[in-house]
Amino acid sequence: MAHDQDLTSAYELIYTVAAGKNYQREAHDITALIRHRHPTADSLLDVACGTGLHLSHLRNSFAHVEGLELSAAMRTAATARLDGIAVHAGDMRAFRLGRTFSAVTCLFSAVGYARSVNELHQTLGCLAAHLEPGGVLVLEPWFTPSQWITGPVDTGLAIDGQRHLTRMCVSHQTGTTSTLTMHYLLGETSTGIRHWTEEHTLTLFTNEQYHQAIQQAGLHDVEWLPGWNDQRPRIAAVKPRP
After folding, report:
1. Which CATH superfamily is domain 4-144+206-238 in?
2. Which residue among 196, 199, 209, 241 has its CA within the 20 to 30 Å range from the CA of 180?
3. Distance between CA atoms of 236 and 120, rounded to whole angstroms?
4. pTM for this structure?
C-alpha cells in the first residue's frame, strides 16, 4: 500500500515526464482563451486542481487565483507548491466559496468523476455559480461513449534522478461507466521498490449531455476547442452579463 506522498509523486512523474503533459504551455493557452472572451479577467478558480501544477503557472497571469481539491494528499501538495494561495477542501459537485471569479477552470477530465447526469448538472451549477457576470468557464471533459476503447493495456515509464516509476493500466466499461485499474512500481535507491494499485471510475458522458448541463447552468456562447490531446477537447462558455 502506498503512502499519500507516493501517490502525489507518482501522479506528477507520470504526467509531466511519461505523458509529456506541458502544464506551462496549457496554462498559456487557457489564459489566452479566457482573455479572448473576457479581456479584463483578473481572478481564477481551478476546481479539482490536483497538486497545483496548472495553478503554479496560471498565478503568473491573474492577479488572484485559488484552487479547490477533494483529495487531502493532492491538496497538501498543492498548498506546499502554491505558497500563499488558498487551496480549499471541497467537492466539485457541492461547494460554496462565498465569492465569484473572472474564470473557473475544471481541467484534465476531472468532471468525469461525476457519477451521473444529475451529478454532472450539480457540478456545472456549482462552477457557474462561482463565475462573475461575463466570466468564462473552461472545462476539459472525459471521453464520450463513442470514443472509449476497452481493453488495451496502457504503460508509462518515468525516470527522475534516482526514482524510477512504471505504471500499467487496464480499463473496462460497464454501461456508461469506465473503470481504470492502475498498477504502480516505484523504485528508489534509498527505499527499494514499492507497489500499489489505484482504481478510478469515470462516467462516459456524451457531448450532448455536457452541452445541456452547461446551458442549464445558465452559460452561453458554448464553444468546443482543441484540447491538450487529439481526443479530449476543451469547452469554453460565458456567463451572461445583466
Report:
1. Vaccinia Virus protein VP39 (3.40.50.150)
2. 209
3. 16
4. 0.94
